[in-house]
Amino acid sequence: MMEEELHHSEHIPQWKKQEIEDIKALIEKYPLFGIVGVGGIPAKQLQAMRRELKDVAVLKVSRNTLVNRALEGSSKDCSEMIDYLNQQCALIFTNENPFKLYKLLEQSKTPSPIKAGAIAPQDIKVEKGPTSFPPGPILGDLQSAGIPASIDGGKVVVSENKVVTEEGNVVSQNLASMLARLEIFPIEVGLDLHAVFEDGSIFTPDVLAIDNDKYFSDIAAASRQAFNLAVNVAYPTTATISTLISKASSEAMNLGINATVLEPEIMDSLLGKAHSQMISLASAVSANNEDAVDEDLKSVLGAAAQSAAATVEEQPAEEAAEEEVEEEEEDAEEGGMAGLGALFG
């Protein structure tokens, strides 16, 4: 058996052995690598992509058989990545995290004309509107390709919105030519990430394709909920202590007023409460019998009525004050967001 393996290895050209070793060295050098599809990318465009990525990643194009041997022989135990190899693949090596790599590759894709005989990746539509073409044979060419066209104002126009071919259909030569002339580019050309290997884990595009806006929105919502929970259960942290002290002070003052606790800090509030109760009682008595209330008390009731009217007029100012308080609470919640790490630390 060993003789057969030796005999087999002797027939591997030196350049292939060196290529396998170079790939294994790259796998060892970088914390992660991915397998990308390069099918359908013109050589010139592929070289341009390689230049654009040179500061953040290394793109290695090699034969699948050599890549297969390198993956099997790597000390990182990444042989499962072989399952993501298919025709026209390349390896990409980087120090970035898998999510950033995926986003980078997606952003680098560019619209491109679809070729005759290609499968439509989605429904291909033409939009109603003018074209740059003068009347001529182009009108018949468009119509023969299934594109509704007519002449209007001395120009060829697309007369209506239409799906000219559905997803999964083969694109004809005539339609591909007309779409290109209309500058309708239905496909995106770029490096198509199949999978990423990092620290023994394999990440596929369905995992890496996250919605950044939703992700940050969820974090913000979690922060607000955590802050509110900590305040409601009186859990002291650097993020919640100011709110907790303010809440405790307010609750203590309310308790003192309701229980009529004679303390200097709340005497004004207690006197105000007693005065209000007196006014309320005098008003009820006066309503049944005006003679039961003396002139001095009637004067007090009159002043109270005027004060109530003035309070109604000042209501917008109070609403503005309430809005200011709400803004302060929102600021406190944002402070909770900043201190989310300290919340449970």
Automatic annotation (TrEMBL):
Quaternary structure and partners: Part of the 50S ribosomal subunit. Forms part of the ribosomal stalk which helps the ribosome interact with GTP-bound translation factors. Forms a heptameric L10(L12)2(L12)2(L12)2 complex, where L10 forms an elongated spine to which the L12 dimers bind in a sequential fashion.
Domain called Large ribosomal subunit protein uL10-like insertion: residue spans: 115-184
Pfam families (alphabetical): Ribosomal_L10 (PF00466), RL10P_insert (PF17777)
CDD domains on file: Ribosomal_P0_L10e
Record's compositionally biased regions (Gly residues): 336-345
Function: Forms part of the ribosomal stalk, playing a central role in the interaction of the ribosome with GTP-bound translation factors.
Gene3D superfamilies documented for this protein: 3.30.70.1730, 3.90.105.20, 6.10.140.760
Segments of skewed composition (Low complexity): 305-314
Protein name listed in UniProt: Large ribosomal subunit protein uL10
Region (Disordered): 305-345
GO cellular component: cytosolic large ribosomal subunit
Gene Ontology MF terms in the entry: large ribosomal subunit rRNA binding; structural constituent of ribosome
NCBIfam families registered for this protein in UniProt: PRK04019.1-5 (NF003098)
Gene name for this UniProt entry: rpl10
PANTHER family, alphabetized: 60S ACIDIC RIBOSOMAL PROTEIN P0, LARGE RIBOSOMAL SUBUNIT PROTEIN UL10
Superkingdom: Archaea
Regions of compositional bias (Acidic residues) in chain numbering: 315-334
Keywords: Ribonucleoprotein, Ribosomal protein, RNA-binding, rRNA-binding
Family: Belongs to the universal ribosomal protein uL10 family.
Organism: Methanohalophilus portucalensis FDF-1
InterPro entries associated with the record: Ribosomal_protein_uL10, Ribosomal_uL10, Ribosomal_uL10-like_insert, Ribosomal_uL10-like_insert_sf, Ribosomal_uL10-like_sf, Ribosomal_uL10_arc
Single GO biological process annotation from the record: ribosomal large subunit assembly
